[in-house]
Amino acid sequence: MNRTEMLSRMKDTSQIWDFIIIGGGATGLGCAIEAASRGYSTLLLEQDDFAKGTSSRSTKLIHGGIRYLQQGNVTLVLEALKERGLLRQNAPHLVHNLPFIVPNYDWWEGPFYGIGLKLYDMLAGKHGFGRSRFLSKEKIKQSIPTLETKGLRGGVIYYDGQFDDARLAINMAQTAVEQSATVVNYVQVSGLIKENDIVNGVLAKDLESGEELEIRASGIINATGVFTDSVLEMDRPGSGNLIAPSQGVHLVLDDDFLPGKNAIMVPHTSDGRVLFATPWHDKVIVGTTDTPIDKISLEPRAMEEEIEFLLSHASRYLTKNPTPSDVLSIFAGLRPLVKDKEAGNTSSISRDHTIYISSSGLVTVAGGKWTTYRKMAEDTIDHAATIAQLPDSPCVSRNIHIHGYHRHAEKFGHLALYGSDATSIQNLLYHDPDLKTPLTPNTNTIAGEVVWAVRNEMARTVEDFLSRRTRALMLDARESMEMAPKVSQIMAKELGRDEKWASTQVETYVELAKGYLIS
Asked: Which one of 3.40.50.880, 3.40.50.300, 3.30.43.10, 1.10.8.870 gives the CATH number of domain 409-514?
C-alpha cells in the first residue's frame, strides 16, 4: 500500500469512479472493502490519517453488547454477535477471546447477571466465544487477586472479543487495496459537485502538496463519523443535524493494577454506562465515560470530571487504588451517535446504524459500532448501488480474510500484530540488522517497524507511527515522546524530508502527546 501509487490513481481525471467514499475510519474502510470486493471501482478519501478519530480510540472490544441486551435490543445483539464471530474468523491475528468477570456484591446480582449472560450465550450460538458460568468468591480471588473482596459474594465469567482497533483499520485499508480500491490519506474533501442537483463528484485537496482536484463518481458515500453533519451541510446548508456526539474516555495503567488475563466488567455505573478494566498490550485500560459534547475535534481531550469518575470507580473495585500519577496515558474518543429525541441521555441512544439518503443522492451512513462495521458496509453499498444505478453485485465480504490473516500469529512474538506480514518484516531485519535496534531501551518497538510503516502502511507523520501503526502513544505517552526523535529521523530518510521537517515533527508530536497526560 503505497501513497504515491494511490495518488497517481486518484489524479487520473479520466476516471469516473463507481463510488467515492468520504472518511477513512472503520465504516468508510468497511465500505471500501465491500464496494471493491463486489467489483465496483472505489476511491476512499481521508482528511487525516486512517482511523485518526473515533476508530482508533475505542475500548478495544469486539462484543455483542451486554448493555444492549439490558435495553431489550435483541436484534442489535444478535447482529453484533454474528459479526463478532466473522471478525475472529477473518482477522484472527488481531481478534481474540477475552474472559470477563462480573463481580457480585449484592445478593440479587448473581442470578440476575447469570441469567442474562446465559441468554447472551444462547444468542451467540455457533459464533460463541465460550460459555458463561458462575464463580465462587474464592475462584474470583484466584483469577483477579487485585479485585476488592469486601462484600464480594461471587460472580459470573463470560467471554467476548478484544482487538487492536487502529491496527485493524490499517489492515482493512490494505484489504481494500487488495480488492482493487484506491485509498488515500491526507486528502480533504472541501465540497460536493452536482449536476442537475444530483451529486456526482467531490472537490478534493491533497494536504501534502496543496493540489486541488475535481473527482467524479456515480455515487458518493458520506462515512465521516462525528463529522457527518459537516458533509451534509456541503450537500444542503441547514441539513446537518443528524449526529449527537458523545465522548468516551479511557485511562491506561500498569498491569500490576490488574495482573493476569481476565477483565473486569461492571454492568451499571452512576452515569449508566458499563465500566471495563481490561488487560491490553501488557497494560490495563479502564473505561469508559459517556459525556454529551458540543464541539467536534480530531483531538478531543478528557475533562477533569471524566478522569475523576474513572479513577474513583476503579478504586471501588481494585485493591490498589489508582491515582493521577499512575496514569500512563489518557485518551478520548467521540461516538457518532444518531440523534434520538426520546433518549434522555447519550448512554441510552441505540448503537444501531442509520442510512440516510439525501435528495441529491448523497448516501450517509452513521451510528453503529466497530463490531458491526462489515454489516453496516454491506447495507450501505446495497443502498448506494441502487441510488447510483449500478449493476447488482452480491456481497462476498463475509468470507474475505483481512490483510495479515494468520491463525497462529503469536509465534511471531512482538510482531504478532502484523500477522502474515511479520515474515516480511523479519526479512527486512535480516537484510539490515541495524533495523533491529529498539527505539528506546524500554520498548520492543524497533526501527524496522518505522521503515515498514512508511513503505507499506502509508505512515506520513511521527504521530501516524506512534499513535496508530504502533500504539505507543496510548500505552505510555511519556515513553512515546522519547521515541519521537529516532522515529522522525528514520521517517525523514524514508520520505526524503529534510532536517527541518524532522525537528518540526518531533515538536508537533511532543505537544500533542502532552495532551494524553494528566496535567
From this structure: 1.10.8.870
Tell me the C-alpha distance between 182 and 174, whole Å.
Answer: 10
Alpha-carbon span 31 to 37, nearest angstrom? 10
Strand bridging mode 182-184 / 291-292: unpaired
Could you state, in order of their start, the residue ranges of all structural domains in the chain? Answer: 3-54+167-241+350-399, 92-162+244-347, 409-514
For residue 438, give Cα distances in angstroms to 160, 343, 442: 33, 50, 8
Q: At what angle do helices 373-387 and 74-90 cross, to 10 degrees?
A: 100
Segment 322-356, tens digit of pLDDT: 999 999 999 999 999 888 645 444 444 456 789 99
The residue to which cell 442470578 is assigned: 111
What is the grid cell recorded at 514? 502532552
Residue positions counted in the chain: 519
pLDDT tens per residue, range 61-110: 999 877 777 777 788 888 999 999 999 999 999 999 999 999 998 866 77
Question: Cα–Cα distances in Å, from 513 out to 248, 325, 472?
Answer: 18, 16, 10
Give yes or no for a contact between 99 and 130, defined as CB atoms under 8 angstroms apart: yes
3-54+167-241+350-399 topology per CATH: FAD/NAD(P)-binding domain (3.50.50)
Q: Within the chain, which residues score under 50 in pLDDT?
A: 341, 343-349
Residue 210 CA to residue 44 CA, distance in Å, equals 18
Residues 436 and 443: their CA atoms lie apart, in Å, by 12
Q: What is the CATH number of domain 92-162+244-347?
A: 3.30.9.10
Could you give phi then psi for residue 324, rounded to 5 degrees? -55, -35
AA letter at 105: Y
| Phi/psi at 45 (5° precision) | -120, 130
Count helices and strands (H / E) in the chain.
16, 18
